[in-house]
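Morning run. Coffee first, then this:
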Amino acid sequence: MKRLLLIGIGAGHPDHLTLQAVKAIGTTDVFFIVDKGEVKHELVQLRLDMIAEHGRAPYRIAEARDPERDRDAAAYTAAVDDWRSRRGRAVEALIRDELADGETGAFLVWGDPGVYDSTLAIVEEILQRGEVVFDYEVVPGISSVAALTAAHRTSLTQVGRPVHLATGRRLASDGPTADDMVVMLDAHCSFAGLDDYAIHWGAYLGTEDELLVSGPVAEVGERIKEVRAEARARKGWIMDTYLLRRLSPRPEQA
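And here it is:
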C-alpha cells in the first residue's frame, strides 16, 4: 500500500524540526509540494532546503499549483470548502500519479498539522472518495502558537483558566469570548479597541524576518497595525499570530 506522511516542520526556523520529523524526512521517497506562487516562494524554498539537508537520495519531488482562493467572498465558509475541494483534487492527483505502491510520500506542513491546517481534512476527504487508497501518519511539529509564546517568554495558559483559539474573522464577528485568546491570521487587526486586553503579537515567527510586539492593546495596537502593513507591503504576504490576555481577569464562575 502507498504510505503518506504529514510532517510538521515548525513555524519557520530550520531548527524547529523535531528528531521524529528528521527521521520521517529520511524515509520519504516522494516529497509533494503545493506551490502558492511567486509571492510565497520562500516558503517552498525552506521546504526544499530541509529536504536537501535531511532527505536520503534517491528521492523525488512532485509539485502542483495551489488553486486560487476567493478571500473576499460573502459566503466565506462555502468559498473555503470550494477551495479545499479543488486543492484536494490536486493533492489526490499527486498521490495517484507520483506515488507507487510500497513507496512513502510526504507533505511538509507548516507548523503543526493538527493545529491550524487543511491538510488533514483534505487527506480524509480523498480517502472517503475511495479512488486512491493509502495509509497515512501525522508527525507533529512546533506550532506558531508555541513559537509565539516562547518568543514572548510567556505561558499559553493561566491556572484554572481556558484558552480560546480563534481566527481574526471570528474575533471580529463574535468579540472576545475568553480572558485568554489565541488569534491567527487577522488581516483586519480585530484586536483594535479591546483596551482591557494585553497583546503578544508575532509575525514570520522563527524566521529571520520575525516581528514581535507586546503590551496593552491601548498602547501598542496602532503600532502593530503599522508594523503589519509595512511588512505585508514589503514581502507581499504575512502570517501572524497573537495572544490576547485580559488585563483584569473576570472572577471564576462558581
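The chain is about 35% helix and 25% strand. Good start to the day.
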